[in-house]
Amino acid sequence: MTIIFYDCKTAPSPRRTRILLAEKNVPHKTVEINLMTNEQMGDDFRKINPDCTVPALQLEDGKVLKDNASIATYLEEVYPEPPLLGITPYEKAVIASWQSKIDHEFGMAVASALRNANPAMKDRALPGKHNYKQIPDLSTRGLKQIDNFFITLENHLLEKKFIATEKFSIADISAACALDFARVVKKKAVKEIHPNIIRWRSNLSKRKSFNI
Ligand SMILES: N[C@@H](CCC(=O)N[C@@H](CS)C(=O)NCC(=O)O)C(=O)O
Q1: So what CATH class is 89-207?
Q2: Architecture category of domain 3-78 in CATH
Q3: Per-block mean pLDDT, blocks of 10 residues, the chain (212 long)
Q4: Contact assessment for residue 59 and residue 29, using Cβ atoms and an 8 Å cutoff
Q5: Which residue has a Cα nearest atom 11 of ligand 1?
Q6: Which residue's C-alpha comes closest to atom 15 of ligand 1?
Q7: Which residues touch 122 (CB under 8 Å, ≥6 apart)?
Q8: Residue 187 alpha carbon to ligand 1 centre in Å
Q9: 3-state secondary structure of 79
Q10: What element of type H or E holds 65?
Q11: d(Cα 37, Cα 69) in Å, to the nearest integer?
């Protein structure tokens, strides 16, 4: 059995897995899950991922990995080239630290800003199988967190080509996916204010994995 990647082309989380699979050249089949029609909540997909979220990765033996964290850990072990989670203990620690920071201060801020304000996401303030009411203040807070993360990232990228180490890593994938998706809440890097973010992001665009 081949690896099956459950994707949604328009969503930022599965895009992280899509880029990882491409960077590591992992043979797989893709199944598109339509989040617009709530296919993730249907019986068929629940059998794959009871959490009702994408990405999910079904392995050759039928086991399913249900989130980006487990997928990245698994792929790095089984497809170690190129290493994207670090090689030395220090690199691994720094990359893990950035991953956590990007998820909590950036990715979740974008999701929170969108999901707590968009009328189409009424009662869907969090992804997954449970319904949660929107809290408009969390959208406002998310927007503020995004502004602050832009400042953090801009300062951090001064004289740096990549986020965590000297080499491209999973932290660059996570941050770029959150940055690109921030357009849905009208946030983007501006040349005059964020030249380092723009330079870093333009450099990533040269990679084939960012253009699929
Ligand atoms: N922790 C998960 C989060 C995945 C996630 O939030 N996925 C969103 C798409 S970006 C989703 O499946 N949403 C389904 C929904 O909104 O019901 C991961 O990073 O893998």
Answers
A1: mainly alpha
A2: 3-Layer(aba) Sandwich (3.40)
A3: 96 98 98 97 98 98 98 98 98 98 98 98 97 98 98 97 98 98 98 98 98 92
A4: no
A5: 53
A6: 127
A7: 134
A8: 20
A9: coil
A10: strand 64-65
A11: 26
